[in-house]
Amino acid sequence: MMFDFATTSPNNRYKLLTATVVPRPIAWVVTQDAQGGINMAPFSFFNAFSSNPPVLGVSIGGPHTDKDTLANIRATGQFVVCLVPESAVHAMNITAIDLPPEVDEMAEAKLTPVPSSLVKPPRVAESPVAFECQTHQLVPLGGNTLVLGTILAAHVQDDCVLDAAKCYVDTPKLGLIGRMHGGGGYARTTDIINVPRIPLADWQARDKG
């Protein structure tokens, strides 16, 4: 069945995208306002977009808005993206509640703040991966704003680092989850199939053997 997005409502476009573009990594975004208040919210319209320069992108808005996150990023230019392990999925769900601006979501979810190295917003001790970011660009997308952040530093849980010099990470050990469809669908990222890349020479020689 073909869905013509020109005649499909924004809400139905959202449903189609979130039901099919899966699993999506989750950006647990921590920001700080000018007075030092902490805000934390999860976003699944998120991914890595560049390694040189190192850039992450988080789309904020649409059916699920978080005005505090975007306002803080506009005001300070700093944020921390933490990735969500299965062990913290219920805490993450608490931070998704539309709490009043004065409420610290991190404290509400009983999460542990850890000082960042290069930016003011803290990272989360319960997250095995955190990226300290400064704003690279804000791209208006109608009802959404795409926040592109330059990564200043990455923190990876010590026991998940296989070789620090080579930057080898034990990805399955991170235990991360991805966003699926529906109101509360998530996927584990530990169910892996291994399909090695095919060298060009091997592909070209396939019929010469």
From TrEMBL:
Coiled coil: none
Names of required cofactors: FMN
GO MF term list: FMN binding; oxidoreductase activity, acting on the CH-NH group of donors, NAD or NADP as acceptor
Native source species: Teichococcus wenyumeiae
Taxonomic superkingdom: Bacteria
UniProt keyword terms in alphabetical order: Flavoprotein, FMN
Signal peptide: none
Name recorded for this polypeptide: Flavin reductase family protein
